[in-house]
Amino acid sequence: MTSVTEDRRAEATVATIGRPPENRQEALRRLLWIGIWLAFLGAPVSDLLKREHTTWATVLGWLALVAFVAVYLALVFRHTARPFARTTVASILVFLTCIAVVTSLTLDAPWLVLFVYVSVGCGAVLPLPLARWAIPGATAAMALIGLTTKGDWGDFVPGLAIPALLGGFAMTGVRHLVRTTVELRQARATVAQLAANEERLRLARDLHDLLGHSLSLITLKSELAGRMLPGHPDQAAQQVADIEQVSRQALVDVREAVTGYRRATLTGELAGARTALTAAGVAADLPMTAELPPGLPPGAGEALAWVIREAVTNVVRHSGARTCAITLGERQTLDGRFLELKIADDGRGGSAVTAGNGLTGLAERLSEVDGMLEPSAQKGKGFTLTARVPLGAP
């Protein structure tokens, strides 16, 4: 169960890749994830704090470092969600490279670390055909400038060149992951749209099959009744009676069709729950399909499907949960055999059981099939909703 939960949590994390931050907390989290790698800038900061340079050189060094960090963060932070134009990307990379070259030549070896960030920036924003040349190029430029500094060459190669190469090419993998995730999200949206279109076509075909013949027959008999009046009132009355019978049958057929469209199913609600939870950034741990055991009362599957729909809606809207697990299985108790459905989240918990949240309606639905509903909440420790339906003899 733990590994499944971790996989679902990873899916929820990947779902946010390549998407602009939706709130301040998500933006801060992403900025922190990018900014944590700025720890390697300790060497330039330490060099400036030593005050071994002139006052003007120190001031210009601080300005150059602040400008470099600001532009680098803007490039990597925004480009992963809303890419810049190609000319803007090229201009930013040239700007970062110029700062790295000038500071390394004037302020000496500690500033060579800026080339590592130039390499990472190339891997993050450039297409792979360009990145595979730009990353080694930035590393080579760093090596050539390093020969003119006072740093030890033996310490320089493993200390900076290898991180520059590995960091740059690692970011190409991250860029590929972002692009793949965006394409996957677009493909899912396309599939959902095609499914909706197919459902509309099915609805149109069903309505045509249900009403086409009946309406044609009503039209024909109406014309016949009009022709038979006033000469043959008895035959016209028979046609009117036939019209009434056909229209009543058509109304019954439409009501049955609409009832079938509105009927909830466990498999359909599980699929909808997975989509809703993932879209809300909640790690979903739930079965792919639901096989109902024999012996269930009629309508029990539909009642349990409504429980899933209502519970997942509450998780998404009100709970603030990070994970949600749905389990479905048989359970033997002292009162007999039950089919048990349990929805548990790790949200706020205490505020989940409130009037008007649909729990009363769910309890009424379950009571119609001799089932029961048990909500359980602990403030700050999540909310659990358990539904049980008795199983008769197979």
Secondary structure layout:
Elements: H1 2-15, H2 24-35, H3 42-49, H4 55-79, H5 86-107, H6 114-125, H7 128-147, H8 153-228, H9 233-262, H10 266-279, E1 283-285, H11 300-319, E2 323-333, E3 336-345, H12 359-367, E4 372-377, E5 383-390
Parallel strand pairs: 1-2
Antiparallel strand pairs: 2-3, 3-5, 4-5
Give the rounded overall mean pLDDT: 78
Spatial order of the strands forming the largest sheet? 1-2-3-5-4
Structural class given helices, strands, pairing? Answer: alpha+beta
Which spans have pLDDT < 50 for at least 5 consecutive residues?
1-18, 351-355
How many DSSP E strands? 5
Question: Helicity level, as a percent range?
Answer: 55-70%
User: What would you report as the Rg, rounded to the nearest angstrom?
Assistant: 33 Å
Separation, N- and C-terminal Cα atoms: 29 Å
* Shape descriptor: elongated
What percentage of the residues does DSSP assign to strands (E)? 5-15%
Count of helical regions: 12
Elements, N to C (H/E): HHHHHHHHHHEHEEHEE
Q: How would a crystallographer describe the biggest sheet?
A: 5 strands, mixed
Can you walk through the features of this model?
The longest helix is centred in the middle third of the chain and has 76 residues, at 153-228. 66% of the residues lie in helices and 10% in strands. It is built from twelve helices and five strands. 26% of the residues are buried. Strand 1, helix 11 and strand 2 form a beta-alpha-beta unit. Helix 4 packs parallel to helix 6 and helix 8 (153-228) packs antiparallel against helix 9 (233-262). The protein has 394 residues and is of the alpha+beta class. The protein has a five-stranded mixed beta sheet with strand order 1-2-3-5-4. Mean pLDDT is 78; it is low at 1-18 and 351-355.
